[in-house]
């Protein structure tokens, strides 16, 4: 077994091939140092990529080291090679690592890198047969290669659109319309419905087993109920992010805190703990109550509180610093407003930037 193993890469983004490379080194070395080399010219920061890898290898004998590296790449230049080596050597040295025993790589420069460190070279799946994927392929087509990206990176990169609003203001209608609109582009897109309504059904069914005549107004809510709803809502959202690059969620944990306030008053905070684990948000779409007829389906409190609730949402979203858009007008107008901003965010998500000297990995056709 080697003592110190080294893996380097851009991990832009980290994918299954990278995981296989690191896991191979981990199985054969006492400790693995992974240098994540990121450039200012790239749209995902090196710190972000390193954080995803740290989550993936949490608890393993792996140290993830983010390294800012804006040095050009030119394998024919000894001077550039020296500059690159010094960047790597000092990234390790300041962490107390003076000796590397093995370099694990799938790249053609792996042997030269190992020689420079006075280490052995271990080539790992250089033909990409075990994992027919590359960072280039992921950047070229996120939707096609989404499942090849490690889970933490998927959750971090997914565009998240959260639809919120007061009762009977068209949140579910808009959420479903958006899912239908984008599913041809993202076939793996998963619906994220309002879990609170499902939970209410379950509570009522449980109550009716002992009291067959019980109705929804007989339910007694507690802060624990809202804690369960908020946690489950986030779990559903995270599962959707792992499935596709776009998440359309009909409410979220932040909205749950407002519904807890609505039902239990200002002094109840059962769901608030979920805000500490709230994933990043790209945009909230707040459905306006104006111009929308109130539909009483037997589960709603009443039309009179819709204006107040809408203001609560505006206040909470603003105080928390989120991007939010009030969607109003007809169904068609609301959908047009929503898709305009979502299309722009998706275009930004897919626009991976790279320095002019960056190479491209071209995969051979899979057998």
From TrEMBL:
Keyword field: Nucleotidyltransferase, Transferase
NadR/Ttd14 AAA domain boundaries: 160-334
Protein name: Nicotinamide-nucleotide adenylyltransferase, NadR type
Record-linked SUPFAM superfamilies: Nucleotidylyl transferase (SSF52374), P-loop containing nucleoside triphosphate hydrolases (SSF52540)
A Pfam family assignment: AAA_28
InterPro entries documented for this protein: Cyt_trans-like (IPR004821), NAD_biosynth-regulator (IPR052735), NadR/Ttd14_AAA_dom (IPR038727), P-loop_NTPase (IPR027417), Rossmann-like_a/b/a_fold (IPR014729)
NCBIfam families, per the entry: cyt_tran_rel
GO molecular function, one term: nucleotidyltransferase activity
